[in-house]
Design brief:
The chain is 46% helix and 13% strand. The protein is of the alpha/beta class. It folds into two domains: 176 residues, Nucleotidyltransferase, domain 5 (2-Layer Sandwich), CATH 3.30.420; 46 residues.
């Protein structure tokens, strides 16, 4: 596949004045410059004390209504479920990447988030939907050869990234719901692994469980206590 070199392309793409409510402007500019399959990628779960980090990549059909897709943090659960169904109805291509707590402990949460996003792109490729450009939420590029550009707060600026944030959030919440059944003492169904007061107290009372991130403050202290000789 021929690739367009991004170095000369992207500087004008991210400059100039834009309507901030137009969340498809970056995708439209790329389409106008010859790219045909543009993916937005985002992750969910950088802050929790437990569970995986999950990323999604979404390719929105150019002719679809992009306006409903926005940062998952600005949506309710019922809205996210409806938007996920809408992605299926409009024929959006979706890839998912999941990185375990043990890998997070080994390579750190930033690198794990980037790895999850890369995995979600690789899933798109495996299913026959290889993007020719990637819009990445944040300020860190992926270790991948496909042309890409980062967008700080991209989930509010790009409909493709916003859609990815919705899919990543829903997927991770479903995973944490399943972990709740395995480790009910931590109430993962409610806190999703985030450091709520109740969750912190459960760690103090029960100690960390196998899906806790042992290198995170709020967990590692209790791992160290457990490892001390008695």
């Amino acid at each position: 596949m021929n690739r367009v070199r991004p170095t000369k392309l992207m500087k004008p793409l991210l400059s100039g004045r834009f309507d901030p409510t137009d969340t498809f402007r970056f995708e439209r500019m790329l389409l106008n410059r010859g790219f045909t399959t543009i993916a937005g990628t985002d992750e969910a779960g950088r802050g929790p004390l437990a569970g995986p980090v999950v990323a999604a990549s979404v390719i929105l059909p150019p002719g679809a209504d992009h306006t409903p897709f926005r940062d998952s943090k600005q949506t309710t659960l019922s809205q996210r479920c409806r938007l996920r169904d809408l992605l299926d109805r409009i024929g959006a291509d979706i890839g998912i990447g999941i990185v375990s707590p043990r890998t997070i402990d080994r390579i750190n949460i930033l690198q794990a988030s980037l790895l999850a996003m890369k995995q979600s792109i690789e899933e798109l490729i495996r299913t026959g939907s290889e993007p020719d450009f990637i819009l990445v939420d944040g300020n860190q590029k992926l270790l991948i050869t496909i042309p890409q550009e980062t967008l700080i707060k991209g989930d509010n600026r790009s409909a493709s990234i916003g859609a990815a944030s919705i899919v990543a959030k829903l997927t991770r919440d479903e995973i944490m719901g399943k972990f709740h059944n395995s480790y009910p003492g931590y109430n993962f169904i409610a806190n999703k692994g985030y450091p709520t007061r109740e969750h912190r107290q459960a760690i103090r009372d029960l100690g960390p469980c196998p899906i806790h991130r042992c290198t995170f403050r709020g967990v590692r202290e209790f791992v160290e206590e457990t490892d001390k000789p008695r």
